[in-house]
Fold this sequence. Notes:
Layout: H1 14-21, H2 39-48, H3 56-64, H4 73-87, E1 97-106, H5 107-114, E2 120-124, H6 147-152, H7 155-183, E3 191-195, E4 198-202, H8 209-231, E5 240-248, H9 249-261, H10 265-278, H11 293-309, E6 320-322, H12 328-338, H13 345-352, H14 357-368, E7 388-394, H15 396-402, E8 409-412, H16 425-429, H17 433-452, E9 469-475, H18 477-486, H19 494-510, H20 532-545
Antiparallel strand pairs: 1-5, 2-5, 3-4, 6-7, 7-9, 8-9
Amino acid sequence: MPTEKYVSIDELPEHLITALSKYVSSVDDDVFVLRNLPPELKGGLLARYSRAPTGLRLTLVNEFLDENGEPIAAKGTELLERVLVGFGDDSVGELEGAHVGLENVSQLFTKDIEDRRIGGSPIEQSTRYVKYDQKDSKGRWRYIRPVEIIESGLLEKFESVTDRAFEVYSEGIKRLSDYFKIQFPRDQFKISVERNGSVVKLGEEDLNDNEKKAFGNAYNFTVRCAALDVGRCVLPSSTLTQIGLFGNGRFFTNIITFLKSTELAESNKKGVELEQALRTEIPTFIRRNKIDPRIKEINSKMRNLSGRLFSGVVPDDNHVTLVPRSEYIDEVVSSILFSYTNVSLQQILLEVTKMPLQNKLKIFDTYKGIRKERRDRTGRGLEAGYPIVFDLVGGFAEYRDLERHRMLTQQRQRLSPDFRFIIPSEIIEVGLENAVVDIEGRMSDLYNDLRYAGLNEASQYATLFNHKMRFMLGMNLREFQHLSELRTTPAGHFSYKEMVQEMTRQLKEREPWSERFYEFVDYSDSSNKISRANEQSRIAGKSLQQRLDMSGDLD
Length: 555
């Protein structure tokens, strides 16, 4: 560090001014960006903000650069350790983060990442845009062979059924691509282009060569998206995919703890690998992660308890249910039980309201477990009491998009064939109904075998995208405004668009006054598989104006 402490930027010698300019976007302005610094040094520097008498740039020079103006990375780590250990300031864990890639993970695993919604920003490879019809270098379809299933002796059946699912998928997208080209002829497709200062929609015959290339990309992308939307109905949840993820230190600490502590072997393994990768970038920020045996223990006890409570209840499978309000304690108990059963939240509420108080308190104690410190926090079931709560039954596609909203509470039940399978009408029209019905039956049989073998969590790998599932969303009106207007836009997926439109109708019926706050809900075209055509027309025009080549999306 410099031999003297500076109290003003004006006091800095020229060589330190030059050095400082490499690490901040401006030496003089009141607003600036940090750059070119080791992650832990940046985190330590920001942690020092609350206790340093000087501004950030002088603190950087005085405490984190050597006499030559070079960063001393160890100083940042040292400060972080002092703050985290000495003061227990968890918020310091949010001052630095990392970008991570997680590849060759199952569709099921992605939910373990995306369910932890605060502090992290995931983006997942899309089954709407990317084909999953290619085999790996060993000639195998790309899906996970879970350790639990290998050890159970059921791998041969698992591979046989899953291989067939991929074969049906591959044949399906070929037939569906041809089908949608007929349903949506190329000579009727138009893109937005500029003519004489105005934006107009024109067909292929009225375009120049450059515009025709954009037209071809937009048309082919529209048809492919429509085909993949429908064809993915038979993709299994074991399908391998990838996630890009940015998160802060606190987020990664919590997610590593969860992954290392949960029931799936895949998640345990990825939790260790994620920790090892992050140790190369932000080791101090994730130091507090731990294996928490409480998670498995609580889940096991809660599943047994729920099984006894609802063993005689036949699950409702209503697509959308706006759940009525109840006593606060009953809402909390019901929310706690939701993810451990397959019955609806409304059915749970009906049973809970009949319980004596002592039984409800026993459920609380079971769910809470033994907390040894304040960081042994209780699960998401406590996030009950929202004025707007929906119980939803739909395909994996709806869930994958709606679960990503951060400013609400979502919980899901296990993936299973319990609520039957959605066969798209286009599958019937292209002559694949029998093949799809057959693979659904074989997958359900495999699921039952896995459950019989005691693989309750791993049995979820034996489900398909269009097996219906149950999940719940709880929110306030401001979040509903955001969700309802975003998820009904023409660019949205037709299945969740239809679901959200029905959510909006039910809330409007119960609370008529609320409608004034979601006036931009789009009620049109919810069943049209190629409703993205207009959106692709607009995107094609915009890319032309900005001289962008969108053909990479078709690779």
